[in-house]
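Subject: for your reference before the review

Hello V.,

The reviewers asked for a structural picture of the protein, and I figured it would be easier to keep everything in one thread rather than splitting it across files. Below is the amino acid sequence we used in the manuscript, unchanged from the supplementary table.
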Amino acid sequence: MIWLTAAGIYLLAVFHRTSFGVAGLQAADRFGVGVAALGTFTVLQVGVYAAMQIPAGVLVDRYGSRRVLTAALLFLGLGQILLALATSYGLGLAARAVLGFGDALTFVSVLRLIAAHFPGRQYAVVTSFTTALGYVGNLAATVPLTLLLAGPGWTPTFLTVGVVTVLYAVFAIRGIRDAPGEAAPPAVREPVDVKALGRQVAGAWRVPGTRLGFWVHFTTMFAPNVLTMLWGVPYLVQGQGQPKATASALLTVFVFGSMIGGPVVGSIIAGRPSLRMPLVGGYLVGAAAVWALLLGWPGAVPLGVLVPSFAFLSLGGPASMIGFALARDYNPLHRVGTATGVVNVGGFVATTVAALSIGLLLGWTGGNFRIALLAVVVVLALGAVRMLVWWRRTRATLFAAEARGEEIPVRITRRRWDARTPALSPAAA
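And here is what came back from the structure prediction:
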């Protein structure tokens, strides 16, 4: 019940985060802006989210998940209420920034809660079910939200969900406990030591497994995010000539693909951790092929190609959870929240860069999505190269630790290329 209460908060956060995926064109009319300015909404929100991930990890390690999740609900609700009432571009941007701040506090807190209440062998499975439940919020932000915006309208819809989010804070306060058996709020902490917090973050960043998790998350989850949070509907409506209702329905492919793929991936890597990186590598190769197909297709891409392409790209969300499993395995429990925040920065930095680049390229090319979406391919290639570098370094560090007789989280087989990769020092490991 503690996990379910926290996962419900993540569901609400995902709904708020992805609501612009179908509301973007209506927002452009409401605020009187073009596609480049429209992209600023998501870039600002995701930028705030990414910038807050490491502070959020430090906060949850220090104050506990219950307090941070309660604060997250209040910021999420306030941001959506402000957006419901906003009629100017500046106020709309401020609302999305507040919403991004609340969203940033959510997922790291839930993962820290899972790490505290479940054994390591169940971490990947419970995390995958958490993300699957979060995609229910994503599903609600597609066709149902489209119908509500077309019916009651902008202000009643967003005002209602904002108030519901604030009220859910009562369930968070009553239903969440930071540790098993905890019956009371944690004791007041010592005054904040900025240097100690810096050492906490630096310690997590120096761990090769954390760095590998960062680049796994960077490379796998940004493309589905870019499409579902902002550019999916404009790409399908303006770039492919699809009706708005069809475009919204096509985005549900990402939702169902992630809901099904998440538990499957979680179960596989829980039983065989050595398969984590092969799964990531297989996804990246397939994603490169999918983007080559979509961007190289002459004329409008038929639905028979769009649906399976989106279904495959949707697996980027489940694959990105491998980054969090790496953070959990390679860091002590007292630093898991911080390490998780570091990893979570990766995907949202990539999302910010890709979303902003697409908007700029659309402005420069007069709305040519074929050229603008090349930004996704560039970010994908950059992330894949950096991920390979840290994969090899993490392997080398594992082999060095094993040679010293230390306990290691994953047993792997030495390959020929491992001999050419220098291990990091024990202190860095």
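For the response letter, the relevant points are probably these. Confidence is low (pLDDT under 50) at residues 183-188, 425-429. Residues 336-365 form the longest helix (30 residues).

Happy to draft the paragraph if you're swamped.

O.
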